[in-house]
Amino acid sequence: MRVFNFSAGPAVLPEEVLQQVREELVDWRGAGMSVMEMSHRGKRFVSIAEAAEADLRELLDIPAHYKVLFLQGGATGQFAAVPLNLAAPGATVDYVNTGAWSKKAIAEARRYARVHVAADAGAPYTTIPPTETWQCSADAAYLHYTPNETIGGVEFHFVPEVAAPLVADMSSTILSRPLDVSKFGLIYAGAQKNIGPAGLTLVIVREDLLGRARPETPTVLDYAAMAKDGSMLNTPPTFAWYVAGLVFQWLKRQGGLAAMAERNRAKAQLLYEAIDASGFYSNPVDPAHRSWMNVPFTLAKPELDKQFCEEARAAGLVTLEGHRSVGGMRASLYNAMPLEGVQALVAFMKEFERKHG
Ligand SMILES: *Cc1c(COP(=O)(O)O)cnc(C)c1O
């Protein structure tokens, strides 16, 4: 039996995509072999790779002067790749700190660049500092921010306007709604939240930012080198790339990102309304900046956390444990989580409160 999986990542994939993968797994469209066994330079895999990029470009309406890279190393690899590629030695880079993932990006960037924290939400990281208060450097090579803090559940529902090229870690929000890519210098995302299986990392980068990498930049992290070889400078994560391509096609069949935004808004609203209407559950995030993708919540009786997760699991609602650093609960509502999953969660929460509240 399939459960409703609220994991923050690796996360739920569309069942339709998994079924398609199963059908094609052993013998991909008459090739006599699995995608996993194909040469990445053969015409079959190249067609899979090109279709995935074309579908992604269509979904996000990516302008022609942006490159799309299919890399490895996760978002964490990009924490280093961004300063190595975009900041000359000694250059200043601006970062906005809105929580756990911002902090990790900042810590890694400090190894390579002079990091200026232009804005810091401060503990307990439940809000976004108003953009008027951001203290941006005059000469920053870029400004980095985290549009959705996967652990804290804080999301930007706007794109900040800054002078420096805007760099965004979109790991847990990419493809959840339409996006104006032209406002960004660079977007990156680990695949395992809203794109596909772990092992693939997407980078969307404006062409004029290419070719500035420091000489010591590892070749596999060098955007210009990777762009030149169509992300096939070395063996790419072929199977993850293929499955991501199937997810892109699924998104197109759903009506694209405008349709996903409507669904995601409705799913999040249903859960936040249930939390706010109860005296038993609470979410600490500033209502203006609550994430559509990751909803942390706590119980009025934290001693029941474990029991909540156990009973939820028995009801087919799994991976609701909060991040180990914050405790409580967290429900991740990525694209592939159907509305029925959120409805089932809300019904379960009401019943749990009735019994134990
Ligand atoms: C999951 C996550 C990461 C880390 O991704 P890896 O692929 O594990 O390196 C970084 N940033 C955000 C916002 C995330 O959600």
Task: Write up this protein.
It is a single chain. This protein has 357 residues and is of the alpha/beta class. Helices cover 35% and strands 16% of the residues. The strands form four sheets. It has a seven-stranded mixed β-sheet with strand order 2-10-9-8-5-3-4. The protein has a three-stranded antiparallel β-sheet with strand order 11-12-14, with helices on one face. α1 packs across α6 and α3 packs across α4. The relative contact order is 0.17. The structure holds pyridoxal-5'-phosphate. Pyridoxal-5'-phosphate binds next to α3.
| CATH classification, class level of the largest domain | Alpha Beta
Give the distance, in angstroms, between the N- and C-terminal Cα atoms: 30 Å
Largest sheet, if any? Answer: 7 strands, mixed
- How many strand segments? 14
Number of separate helices: 9
This entry's quaternary arrangement is single chain
Overall mean pLDDT: 97
CATH architectural category of the largest domain: 3-Layer(aba) Sandwich
Roughly how much helix do the residues carry, as a percent range? 25-40%
The CATH topology of the largest domain: Aspartate Aminotransferase, domain 2
Residue windows where pLDDT falls under 50 for at least 5 positions: none
Strand residue percentage:
15-25%
Specify the CATH homologous superfamily of the largest domain: Type I PLP-dependent aspartate aminotransferase-like (Major domain)
Mass-distribution shape: globular
